[in-house]
Amino acid sequence: MAESGMLLNFDIGDVALKKQVKFTGGYWRDRVRAQRAAKKGLQGPSSGSNNTPLPDHRRDRRETDAFGDDDRPSKRQRTETADQNGQRARRYDTGSLHPGTSGTGSKPGGVTSRLFTSNPTPKTVFEHPVEESEPAKPSNAPLSEDAANFHALGLSRRIAQHLSSKLEMKAPTPIQKNTIPQLIREDNDAFLQAETGSGKTLAYLLPIVQRIMALSVNEDGTSTGTQIRRDSGLLAVVLAPTRELCKQIAKVLEKVLRCAPWIVSTTVIGGESKKSEKARLRKGINILIATPGRLADHLDNTKVLDVGTARWLVLDEGDRLMEMGFEEELRSIVGKIRKEPLKAANKDGVRFDALPQRRVTVLCSATMKMNVQKLGEISLQDAIHITATKTGNDADGVTDTNDAVFSAPSQLKQTFLIVPAKLRLVTLIALLKSSFSRKGSVMKAIIFISCADSVDFHFDLLRDTPRATSDDRSLTANTVSSAAYITSPANTTIRLLKLHGSLQQPVRTATLASFHNSKDPSVLITTDIASRGLDVPAVDLVVEYDPAFSVDDHVHRVGRTARAGRSGKATLFLQPGCEEGYIGFLKTSTPASTQPYDPTVQKGFVTPVTLPKPDPSSSEAPTLVTEKQSPNSRAEALQLHLEQRLLASEKQDGHAKLLDAARKAFRSHIRAYATHVREERVYFDITQLHLGHTAKSFGLREAPGGIGGGPSRRTAAAKTKATSGEKKGEKGTDATGTKAGADSDDDVPRGAADEDAARRRMRMKMKAVMDASGEFNIG
């Protein structure tokens, strides 16, 4: 062409030439879209915080529909939004996280992981919290010594002095004041109802100990000539729903019996050796504390257990006993005890004239639900109703106590935190970080989560890098660790513990003892196994990360703090939308405030976040999420760090295997979400749950499949029916994926998940979840 003399002129205009940008990393679709956008000359914001909202005309239609005026959820698990080049991109980062970045991918074309955009708008109108002029008067604190003392209630001087000097109990609580004289003087059945932390355990134990002591010791301390020994017969039986509560009752009783060492008590619970239990029963006991299943077993198979001399039957936490399906065992136990003729003397000729001349049943329950009334019909006869404020006759058992209102202690301060789904994890870390920012402000905190798989994941996520020590063989090697992310200069060491019903009983006992005896700031991540009756000193904060399955469980959860007159705080996480209506449904009688998540995030991330060391043996300084960032930027950087950590665990045979644990926890969480009681399900509507955002709260970049046994699993199930059945038989699981023989007395079962389940539409998936939710229904 040059030889022909032709000249080609190209008009490039006045615009400067743009440098060709090559996009690398991420998904190929994202690279193609970014490349096309660059060719078209589209430009997004050059820089800035992730807090900048996207222009409305560039927002994906599906995202707009998901959070429009009608607040309907997206029907797709993987939602998309516009990136900085104006193109659709998945809402997660494909680059690598560098501490100090504001959440933007480090490579050109990296996709930003946005936390503070595309969130639903809360319906609640938030008000500025009003500081109380003076703190509320505790409603479960002991009375003044001038108003009452234990000796005046009918207890002997020996017991009263022991309570005062050894147990440092100067005065009774209101429920003890009303209960102890009644159970000492009368032989009527009783129904005890009082708020958490008010001393119900001692209210029924002290009268029993007093009347048994009266057989051997007079009021002036002299001997009656009758000596009660451990082989004198079984005189009282106490039933409790969980093993932890049984052990706690036994520990309280042991302290009381130090003033009467000739009276012997013991426990028979699941998870312990039946052989050793039979040996203790053969030696003889006076007071037996048991779970219903194990006691029913001993009544059927242990001939040495004689209930003919038993005078008292105490049913503690009666509502929980019925909820956990112990009705048949309770009917059997009550029937067998009543069927046995009441003996006026034991085999040695010792007469029990000072004891009740009929069998006395004491039912303790915080609420008056239908199942409690049914339990009252089974166990009570001509019972009296005793509360902290009154004592009244009830000829029909408990039928006239429906109007009794059970509330949390008045000094408990409750907070409802409205948090979007994908901000839940960083908000939880911010809350804990701010709570432990001052030394001594919070010593112990309890985090309640809906299911055991989620407990395991959050414990592994928040724990510090595991260190190999000589103590790895201890029972708490995998349940107690140092915490990461939530430490502060004031509290450089925080203990992290986990507890749920799938752990072996010795591990559960050792973990709870470690939390009870810890002198360092501690955080216990647990299921509802720890919501009933447990009394751990110095619990200052209760966090309901997952809402309880019923209002009654909520009241018991928050009752782990503000006990015996102490102050306490409780925080409930709720999502914008239908869950906000749950606030009005609770109708709390204690000071409560509704707050957005923003102040918590700002307060928690006002200081840098310390990241755990990848290598425990490294001598390098700890990495910080800092470099003049705003709290929101730190939150996004932390979220990206957690997501990167999960992805890194997929490539390594690490200790935690976080990615698989996160997927398993997400599936169990979704299933458990569908099991709220019927009257509360309108507030926890699973069809309104955004799966993609919820997955982000587990550090996942997309929602995994295989949540329920839906249509997409039928083909795969037909192909692998034989092999899966063999594997389940080897692993000891049943058809639902629950471990066969596992003692799930207080926990949501762990469901199996199909990793290769195909994608399906939202409505079909939700139907599958609802069909599979039966295995999680603990309410």
TrEMBL record:
Q: Where is the composition biased (Low complexity)?
A: 712-723
Q: Name one GO cellular component term.
A: nucleolus
Biological role: RNA helicase.
Indicate the segments forming the Helicase C-terminal domain, all copies.
424-613
Q: Which SMART domains match?
A: DEXDc, DUF4217, HELICc
Q: Name one GO molecular function term.
A: hydrolase activity
What this protein is called in its record is ATP-dependent RNA helicase
> Recorded E.C. number(s)?
3.6.4.13
Q: Which PROSITE patterns match?
A: HELICASE_ATP_BIND_1, HELICASE_CTER, Q_MOTIF
Reaction(s) catalysed by this chain's protein = ATP + H2O = ADP + phosphate + H(+)
- Domain DEAD-box RNA helicase Q positions: 148-177
InterPro entries in the record, alphabetically? DEAD/DEAH_box_helicase_dom, Helicase_ATP-bd, Helicase_C-like, P-loop_NTPase, RNA_helicase_DEAD_Q_motif, SPB4-like_CTE
Compartment(s) of residence: Nucleus, Nucleolus
Region of interest: Disordered = 26-144, 701-760
Family indicated by similarity: Belongs to the DEAD box helicase family.
- Polar residues composition bias: which ranges? 44-53
Motif Q motif residues? 148-177
Give the comment on domains: The Q motif is unique to and characteristic of the DEAD box family of RNA helicases and controls ATP binding and hydrolysis.
